[in-house]
Design a protein that fits this description.
OB fold (Dihydrolipoamide Acetyltransferase, E2P), alpha+beta, 6-stranded mixed beta sheet, 2 domains
């Protein structure tokens, strides 16, 4: 029996459908990351799990017990929002202690719990300070401490790192992962950033336009996307997507994109006549060399975007353009001729109509 189950949950606001038959389970002690772009339904889903809003249809179960109509304060869940309401006129200690004092807990027990959670999160030094003196990371950790101090059955985190700058966000993502390993609280973590979800989540649910498109372990989501939408969403930098044709026969799949032909080894049972397909490959999966080698394709560098140690180059091959990650060991300039290698194993093929991956 799953610890927490969301079963066939849908939500409408007027005529607008925000969630469509969402089903997922959360195991005790894991972090389920809900990943999707803004407006995909992540926050609505978390609020339904928390009991802050009711689903239009569907049910929520905790340990097999239907809690759909149970008030939020009885569920024993805690939620940290994108902009957590840390009270500006109260010290770090007072902010963290607030939910315990609402329960009329003895002051000695309150103090014990606040200091324990502050030590765990590394924020004892801010307990006597006001939020106006906090850094972004300290602010988020105080909000998290207030959520954890009550020992919640489930911790719901709604884009908690979104408003931090890139370096702090990267640090906090790793810190949260390490914290989860220490405390083991069952968590649902929502984020618009697929890399953040893949870093933090024990499993990841990709939600697009209110529907769960794929749920699985991070490497499964990354390496085996079930459809083009998931592949495109988790690819950073943006996925290279091409329309072309493909034909499968005698254990070979031949893909033709413009004047580029790619051949993949496939199961001999896969056979179909030439048909329209969509081919996709990530910029990081394309190899580049400066001199001609057997099997390389010649192109010209149109644009270079620097990404710190590496560069993202747009290379023109006949009538198509492909984005490629260029390692720092290769010095190139716009206008240079260069050669690329498309490893057939890195090319994924999708049906034009359904966008589902063609099983090879």
């Amino acid at each position: 029996m799953p610890f927490l189950e969301v079963r066939d949950v849908s939500k409408k606001f007027g005529e607008k459908t925000v969630l469509k038959n969402v089903s997922l389970t959360v195991n005790r002690g894991e972090v389920l990351a809900i990943a999707g772009p803004p407006g995909s339904g992540k926050t609505t889903l978390l609020k339904i799990v928390a009991g802050l809003i009711s689903p239009t249809s569907g049910r929520i179960y905790l340990n097999g017990i239907d809690i759909t109509d149970v008030p939020p304060h009885i569920r024993g869940f805690s939620m940290v929002f994108e902009n957590p309401p840390v009270y500006p006129d109260r010290s770090g200690y007072e902010n963290i202690a607030f939910p315990l004092k609402l329960k009329n807990m003895p002051e000695a027990e309150v103090r014990k719990r606040v200091y324990e959670i502050a030590d765990l999160l590394g924020i004892r030094h801010v307990l006597d300070r006001k939020p106006s003196t906090f850094s972004g990371g300290e602010y988020q950790r105080v909000a998290l401490a207030r959520a954890l101090v009550t020992n919640p059955a489930v911790l719901l985190l709604d884009e908690p790192l979104r408003n931090l700058d890139a370096k702090i966000r990267e640090y906090m993502a790793v810190w949260l992962k390490q914290l989860q390993l220490k405390i083991g609280v069952t968590s649902i973590y929502s984020t618009h950033d697929p890399l953040e979800a893949l870093t933090i989540g024990t499993r990841v649910a990709v939600i697009l336009s209110g529907e769960i498109k794929q749920l699985g372990e991070p490497l499964t989501i990354l390496n085996n996307p079930v459809n083009l939408d998931v592949d495109d969403y988790v690819s950073i930098p943006a996925l290279n997507i091409f329309k072309g044709t493909a034909k499968a026969f005698r254990g070979k799949l031949v893909i033709n994109i413009d004047k580029v032909s790619i051949e993949k080894n496939v199961s001999s049972e896969l056979q179909f006549e030439e048909r329209n397909v969509i081919a996709a490959i990530r910029p990081s999966d394309v190899s580049v060399v400066k001199t001609y080698q057997s099997g390389t394709l010649s192109g010209k560098v149109e644009l270079i975007q620097y990404l710190g140690a590496n560069a993202l180059a747009t290379i023109r091959l006949n009538d198509i353009a492909i984005r490629v990650i260029i390692p720092k060991t290769i010095q190139i300039n716009e206008g240079d001729s260069i050669y690329i290698v498309l490893d057939p194993r890195n090319v994924r093929v999708y049906d034009v109509q359904s966008k589902q991956r063609i099983d090879l």
